[in-house]
Write a structure and sequence with these properties.
203 residues; alpha+beta; Jelly Rolls; 19% helix; 33% strand; globular; binds 2-oxoglutaric acid
């Protein structure tokens, strides 16, 4: 995997996009492998006191010592499959970031989506680096500034890698809106570096 290039789709500071981080064949093989072999879950969230299943499937993979509220509350923590461990090692070396957790999303078709949010949980630190790899159907990612009207859209192609770092989470939100007519699935891998659990011991 190469270091992402300067961004051809004119993204704001803190976002950089590489369209062909993985070859088409590798992306396809990996997509089918993960679709069939990960332990997918569909967590429930509460919105205004009402429970809803989220509109996508997820799998959270992490080192055993990772302290991440996201996983603790809703998702089982899974061990690293070899193929994803190898990818995280390559990404960690290339970007000089010790990735220790991975949230995987499976969008079964264009009706599955993700709402506006920032990945700004405390465990990720003040300026987190997140490496987001896309496999399968192309989807549009929307980005908007939190305090002005600046908006961007980026087409996430299969095999691409979007890096979010710097103040991207402090200053912007992102979302993956529905694309009602899309029939094909997509998998997204977001590699993260989370705080570690404090070791408890008694003497
Ligand atoms: O599917 C995507 O590209 C977006 C994923 C995302 O925003 C997230 O995992 O926080």
């Amino acid at each position: 995997m190469q270091r992402p290039n300067a961004n051809p789709q004119l993204l704001p500071n803190g976002f950089s996009y590489q369209s062909r981080a993985l070859s088409a064949q590798k992306s396809l093989d990996l997509f089918y492998y993960l679709q069939q072999n990960l332990n997918w879950q569909q967590p429930t969230i509460k919105v205004y006191g009402k429970s809803h299943v989220i509109p996508r499937l997820q799998c959270f993979i992490a080192d055993r010592n990772v302290n991440y509220g996201y996983s603790g509350s809703k998702l089982r923590v899974e061990p690293w499959p070899n193929v994803l461990d190898a990818m995280r090692i390559r990404l960690s070396k290339t970007l000089a970031i010790p990735f220790n957790a991975l949230l995987v999303n499976l969008y079964r078709d264009g009706k599955d989506c993700m709402g506006w949010h920032s990945d700004d949980e405390e465990e990720l630190g003040a300026q987190p680096t997140i490496a987001s790899v896309s496999l399968g159907a192309e989807r549009i990612l929307k980005i908007k500034h939190k305090h002005n009207n600046e908006q961007h859209s980026i087409v996430l192609q299969s095999g691409s890698c979007l890096i979010m770092n710097g103040f991207s989470q402090r200053d912007y939100q992102h979302s993956l809106p529905k694309q009602q007519r899309l029939k094909h699935p997509r998998i997204n891998l977001t590699f993260r570096s989370c705080a570690k659990k404090e070791i408890e011991f008694c003497l």
